[in-house]
């Protein structure tokens, strides 16, 4: 296998010979597939009163979703293989099978409070591209591979982009297998349990290009009035777990000045992060504490322990480094305010800003124009499997606008059938052009 | 049954006839009993590296603790009955059985991270008083009843002083039976499951007096150099559960100004409470958020829900009312800072300042003096079963000094054998004098 680093990747180069082709898909079939997959892991969401999706990685629901996707891949004539991480690959042969294939895909695992679109649009969209190629009787020069990566969300085993990161060689198989979830269940064991530890070698031969269509998960496209966008890259992302150790004590009798209240320190971290965001000193920093829990968690006991996760995002690596350094400095001040406190941090994930390939971006932009879609270029706020693929192959993404301020990781997540069809038409035309390149 | 309200209670009155008697106990036997009971529910505490006690109410450990106490009561010749709330009563007959008895006791249920002393000293101390009366061949005029109340801590079913509150008539049996724990298990069902739903009617005939010995759970006695203290009353206590409803959203893509972050609001409440305490505007206010948890609790999802408990204490009812009102006002401002937030509060417990009977306080103070212990009067920061008994009978408490700043609800909780013996000698002399009154 040739191992190529991003720095030395050739771009896809001039493609004037294939730029005249167009491919449009069956939007109704795409929508029906999205809705059918969303039934797997469906739950009734108390907060919104809507039906949400909970299909976390390597659960029974995830396995059922995978089986449905494989059934659809097989029905579309794809040759399905499963790698050692459980990621799915459905290959449509090209007229020159020896050429590196074009990969298109995303993921079908979800967070605990998800909608129907995040990840699924990219997988089922790529499947719809293949179905439409079949309908049109088109054979491409290069093979096309539809991919569904394992554990993109990272919510169950704590590391996101897991399947694509191991495929791209950033993380090892052993690292992934030894991850454990909150219940202490091991990734490797759960993968075997659901029957999806495949035998395809996990390190991926660099494909010709990788293209991923995804919902924007933000408000920008809707604000600007576009259905689709060309993604220029992914902002820097940092995940840490912070554990504050204090001292359990009686709530009624322990004088305030003698307390080492782990919960108070955790709350101060949350408030400090919002102050950092609001200060504007760190550019377009976003900070989120999604998980916060005190122990022992009793009304009359000062917490002796608090655990929280800190998710920082920044399109600028220098601003991100400043934010991380200032947060770390703040954490060191906490024991001074409450003697006896101890603060531990553990890095869960960290990626710098990943720029996407300008050649692939141009192919996507041209497809938009040829299909009559006004568009814009924008950076992704969320991490995606594409950022892992970008290390080994020319890569870019298509974004589809979301409604309701682009809310995502929430049952209210919604993109219209028109926007989804537009995005997958762009994906189809892009994949067709790259595969004939 | 005669039902007497605290306002109209007669004090115990002049007792010059019995003030010359003294009773001292077997401190070694008391200590051995404390250590033996502490083995039930023992666990290895990670935070301190010590062995702690987790004997929460109506668990199997609580049942085992109850069986040991009953075995010891029976061995001491007591007639044991169990009331409809599971509270234990061990009666030592007096020479005039028709007279109202003197009650002495406390509780053996614990928080999840407890030590060996909280509650247990009062129950096993009262048992040691009876054992010592037996050793000395003393028969008192009035009966003496050793009591162990059910669910004093309130950590499992959310209402503290539960057994004594129902016995005193402040809460109903139905209210208690229908309480559920975090797992949805019902108090009434758990009481039956552990075999401790007794048939003694729960409403208690007012005894002659109630005396409870307890560790101070604070630093005052140690700071002043006393082993024992006379408790003048219990400060006001307020428990609320606050639930913040926000909106789940993607951590990387949702602009900060569009978020309704329930976790941030919860953190702001915690920080605000500490500011209120530090302001000095609410007298000797103590505020504790022991339980704080965000949902769904994932690193990349803005929390749509946060739950926290607020424990407020104040020796002054007016200051307590001001603190509660100002907290409530602060909660109403939160949706203004993050549109879409909703804040719910539920009252878990509320007691005003409970003053103890001055006559019983004087009997305790005289016992201290006659036994050669310097002492002081102080108010209790923690709630105790004595505050419920104070509604139906002349009541006061003996405090025993704690080491390490009086830390409690923690495996480091410790009182010396000397201090425990001193406290129970005071309890013994007080009970003997009251029972001969």
Automatic annotation (TrEMBL), chains A, B:
- Please name the Pfam families in this protein's record: M20_dimer (PF07687), Peptidase_M20 (PF01546)
Q: Which domain of life is it from?
A: Bacteria
Please state every residue range assigned to the domain named Peptidase M20 dimerisation: 236-333
Keyword Hydrolase attributed: yes
Q: Which UniProt keywords apply?
A: Hydrolase
Q: Would I find Hydrolase among this entry's keywords?
A: yes
InterPro entries for the chain: Amidase_Cbmase (IPR010158), Bact_exopeptidase_dim_dom (IPR036264), Peptidase_M20 (IPR002933), Peptidase_M20_dimer (IPR011650)
Q: CDD domains, alphabetically? A: M20_bAS
Enumerate the GO terms in the molecular function aspect: hydrolase activity
Family classification: Belongs to the peptidase M20 family.
What's the protein here called? Zn-dependent hydrolase
Q: Which gene encodes it?
A: amaB
């Amino acid at each position: 296998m040739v191992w190529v680093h991003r720095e030395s990747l050739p771009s896809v180069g001039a493609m004037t010979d294939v730029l005249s082709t167009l491919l449009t898909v069956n939007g109704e079939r795409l929508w029906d597939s999205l809705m059918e997959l969303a039934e797997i892991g469906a739950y009734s969401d108390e907060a919104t009163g809507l039906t949400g999706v909970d299909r976390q990685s390597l659960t029974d629901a995830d396995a059922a979703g995978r089986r449905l996707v494989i059934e659809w891949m097989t029905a579309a004539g794809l040759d399905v293989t499963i790698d050692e991480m459980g990621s799915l690959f459905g290959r449509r042969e090209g007229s020159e099978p020896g050429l590196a294939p074009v990969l298109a895909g995303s993921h079908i695992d979800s967070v605990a409070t998800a909608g129907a679109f995040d990840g699924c649009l990219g997988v089922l969209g790529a499947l719809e591209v293949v179905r439409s190629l079949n309908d049109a009787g088109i054979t491409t020069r290069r093979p096309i591979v539809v991919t569904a990566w394992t554990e993109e969300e990272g919510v169950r085993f704590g590391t996101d982009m897991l399947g694509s990161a191991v495929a791209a060689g950033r993380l090892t198989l052993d690292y992934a297998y030894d991850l454990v979830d909150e219940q202490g269940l091991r990734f490797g064991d759960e993968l075997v349990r659901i029957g999806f530890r495949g035998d395809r070698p996990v390190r991926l031969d660099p494909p010709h290009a990788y293209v991923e269509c995804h919902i924007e998960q933000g408000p920008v496209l809707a604000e600007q009035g576009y259905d689709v966008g060309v993604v220029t890259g992914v902002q820097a992302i940092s995940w840490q777990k912070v554990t504050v150790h204090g001292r359990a004590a009686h709530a009624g009798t322990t004088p305030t000045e003698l307390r080492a209240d782990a919960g108070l320190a955790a709350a101060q971290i949350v408030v400090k992060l919002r102050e950092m965001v609001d200060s504007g000193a760190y550019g377009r920093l976003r900070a989120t504490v999604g998980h916060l829990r005190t122990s022992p968690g009793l009304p009359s006991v000062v917490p002796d322990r608090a655990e929280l996760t800190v998710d920082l995002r920044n399109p600028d690596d220098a601003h991100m480094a400043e934010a991380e350094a200032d947060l770390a400095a703040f954490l060191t001040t906490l024991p001074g305010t409450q003697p006896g406190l101890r603060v531990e941090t553990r890095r869960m994930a960290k990626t710098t800003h990943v720029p996407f390939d300008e050649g692939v971006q141009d192919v996507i932009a041209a497809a938009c124009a040829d299909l009559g879609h006004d568009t814009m270029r924008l950076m992704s706020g969320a991490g995606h499997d594409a950022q892992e693929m970008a290390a080994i192959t020319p890569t870019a993404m298509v974004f589809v606008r979301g409604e309701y301020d682009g809310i995502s990781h929430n049952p209210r997540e919604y993109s219209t059938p028109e926007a989804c069809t537009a995005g997958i038409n762009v994906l189809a035309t892009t994949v067709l052009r790259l595969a004939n390149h």
